[in-house]
Specification:
- The protein is α+β, with helices and mostly antiparallel strands and about 600 residues long.
- The chain is built from 14 helices and 33 strands.
- The strands form 7 sheets. It has an 8-stranded antiparallel beta sheet.
- The structure holds guanosine-5'-triphosphate.
- Guanosine-5'-triphosphate (GTP) binds next to α1.
Length: about 600
């Protein structure tokens, strides 16, 4: 019953949507906003929840966002629905579990033509473990290839979730949208939370806004939060005054109070995003003993790479750009690095390859920088002969081989879902990537494979290879499991006899011969011919395992463009010039950006 007493939370529903990329989460969220009358048609034209340009271009959701909607249900009552968006990509799974902590329920949206995918299974388990009510929804029912019965069977068998009364919907046509909202109100419990208790609020997300400073999205778990309150951020121990608070409906709307059970934003003149980390707990300065909401952990980067400005003059701008970018991205780690080959730059840590690509693109696009990136690497644990254990995120910083007692690499626990007809190819790929099979189950038309794989193999090209091995149908989810001793070594690349530190890679000894040779071949393709022969060698210590030669250039590139075809000649020169921008002079040889990433293109 919707009572006037403020302590009644029965009209509130906090929920998230779990969906694999492209299964229709954003479209569905837009429909909810429309049904609840939050936006005009023109505003609807933009997908409001994916707010960053880059996200929209790539069509993926990165930052969690929320929207508060008033829904007039069929029982005549008005409910407050707080939808908390979650990112769909495996790199950002930490943020998913944060978002789920703020909810009592989640919709599991599955494309009725595609079926269940590994990532949504993993997120669904997280939700179930956190005690959430999960409601399956079959989306894209308007498509002729929709197979609701098969997908229901998959949901029941793979996830173990009752799905026979899952709403059959189409976010595109509008079919079933109100049925979803009705089911949500009926099945997802309202939040619990004592309004009289001391304030305890969870930070679901924080981002840096140029005008407002840090804005945090919070879920009040107990007590109330008022404008003007002096708050305490538990992990930093810092105190701040709340300048503004309110909700997104979906526009930012100011209020004076957020109560237990509610979700909204706060601004408290916090200068950088690390001052209000995601997953942290807020309480009042007067009640510092309120416990933290459990499960808070600092995000740890999984993949590291060196980023260097092409022109040394840009170093200062590059540092400023990283400072600014990190205001908004707490998971971006960076520290100065210097390389003999590439000069001064930064060693950056990322959540995964997608995160790395996004950061790189933002630096180049928003800050107009030309950067050279070295091959990404995972973090290794090295036990030295003197017993000391060190973590190494940069192949060129490895201790000398004879000082290494044990080389340990990170192992992930991976789940792959793949249609039966492609399972053979996927197993072959996993074996090639040094995977160890832990489980294999057949369900409906899909096979669920569980493997332990070295993280280094996964972050390289595994995902792309998996997609091509399964015609795009396989899906993957993985999480760090442990460090394990492995027969690894460092492979150096020498250009005309000079060891190029930025080209060093760590790999398994079994792969060294073959990959070393392929790497030299690839380098030969990538390094432009010079006025002299260039020798490219791959070596372990002093032992050369492969070599090739980039033959000296004899002809002028434009020589063959004889006659009056000036435009073609100009074009060629222009292309050459653009190519040069992304080159680094190493000794007397120009090495292009692609060569630094060549290892990623070397299939074992
Ligand atoms: N035919 C059909 N297409 C749909 C439906 N729902 C979504 N789509 C389309 O599917 C594509 C992906 O939809 P999104 O809503 O962007 O998917 P998403 O899950 O939010 O993707 P991320 O933001 O990347 O996680 C878009 O081209 C939508 O237009 C539906 O019910 N029917």
């Amino acid at each position: 019953m919707l009572a006037s007493v403020s302590s009644d939370l029965s009209h509130i529903r906090n929920f998230s949507i779990i969906a694999h990329i492209d299964h229709g989460k954003s479209t569905l969220a837009d429909r909810f906003i429309q049904v609840c009358g939050g936006l005009t048609d023109r505003e609807m034209a933009e997908q409001v929840l994916d707010s960053m340009d880059l996200e929209r271009e790539r069509g993926i959701t990165i930052k969690a966002q929320s929207v508060t909607l008033d829904y007039k249900a069929r029982d005549g009552k008005v409910y407050q629905l707080n939808f908390i968006d979650t990112p769909g990509h495996v790199d950002f799974s930490y943020e998913v579990s944060r978002s789920l902590y703020a909810c009592e329920g989640a919709l599991l949206v599955v494309d009725a033509g595609q079926g269940v995918e590994a990532q949504s299974v993993a997120n669904c388990y997280t939700a179930i473990e956190q005690g959430l009510e999960v409601l399956p929804v079959l989306n894209k029912m308007d498509l002729p290839q929709a197979e609701p019965d098969r997908v229901i069977q998959e949901i029941e068998e793979i996830i173990g979730l009752e799905a026979h009364d899952a709403v059959r919907a189409s976010a595109k046509s509008g079919l079933g949208i109100e049925d979803i909202l009705e089911q949500l109100i009926e099945r997802i419990p309202p939040p619990e939370g004592d309004l009289e208790a001391d304030l305890q609020a969870l930070i679901i997300d924080s981002w840096f806004d140029n005008y407002l400073g840090v804005v945090s999205l919070v879920r009040v778990r107990q007590g109330t939060l008022n404008k003007g309150d002096k708050i305490l951020i538990k992990s930093t121990g810092r105190q701040h005054v709340v300048d503004r608070l309110g909700i997104f409906n979906p526009k930012m709307t100011d209020k004076t109070v957020l109560k237990a059970g509610e979700v909204g934003f706060i601004c408290a003149s916090i200068k950088e995003i690390r001052g209000a980390p995601v997953g942290d707990t807020i309480t009042l300065a007067t009640t510092p003993d309120v416990p933290m909401v459990p499960g808070f952990q600092k995000v740890k980067p999984q993949v590291y790479a060196g980023l260097f400005p092409v022109s040394a003059d840009d170093y200062g701008d590059f540092r400023d750009a990283l400072d600014k970018l990190s205001l908004n991205d707490a998971s971006l780690f960076y520290e100065p690095e210097s390389s003999d080959a590439l000069g001064f730059g930064f060693r950056c840590g990322f959540l995964g390859m997608l995160h790395m690509e996004i950061v790189q693109e933002r630096l180049e696009r928003e800050y107009d920088l030309d950067l050279i990136t070295t091959a990404p690497t995972v973090v290794y644990e090295i036990m030295k002969t003197d017993g000391e254990v060190v973590m190494v995120d940069n192949p060129s910083k490895l201790p000398a081989i004879n000082n290494i007692e044990e080389f340990r690499e990170p192992i992930v626990h991976a789940t792959i879902l793949v249609p039966q007809e492609h399972v053979g190819n996927v197993i072959t790929l996993c074996v090639e990537k040094r995977g160890v099979q832990k489980d294999m189950q057949f369900t409906g038309g899909q096979v669920s494979l569980v493997y332990e794989l070295p993280m280094a193999e996964i972050v390289m090209d595994f995902f792309d290879r998996l997609k091509s091995a399964s015609r795009g149908f396989a899906s993957l989810d993985f999480a760090f499991d442990r460090f394990e001793a492995s027969n690894l070594t460092r492979l150096d690349i020498l250009v005309n006899g000079d060891r190029v530190d930025a080209l060093a890679v760590i790999m398994h000894r079994d792969h060294v011969q073959r990959r070393g040779r392929l790497l030299c071949e690839k380098m030969k393709e990538l390094i432009p011919r010079q006025q002299f022969d260039v020798a490219v060698q791959a070596a372990i210590g002093n032992q050369v395992v492969a070599r090739t030669t980039v033959k000296a250039l004899r002809k002028n590139v434009t020589a063959k463009c004889y006659g009056g075809d000036v435009s073609r000649k100009k074009k060629l020169l222009q292309r050459q010039k653009e190519g040069k921008k992304r080159m680094k002079q190493v000794g007397s040889v120009s090495i292009p950006q692609d060569a630094f990433l060549a290892i990623l293109k070397v299939d074992s």
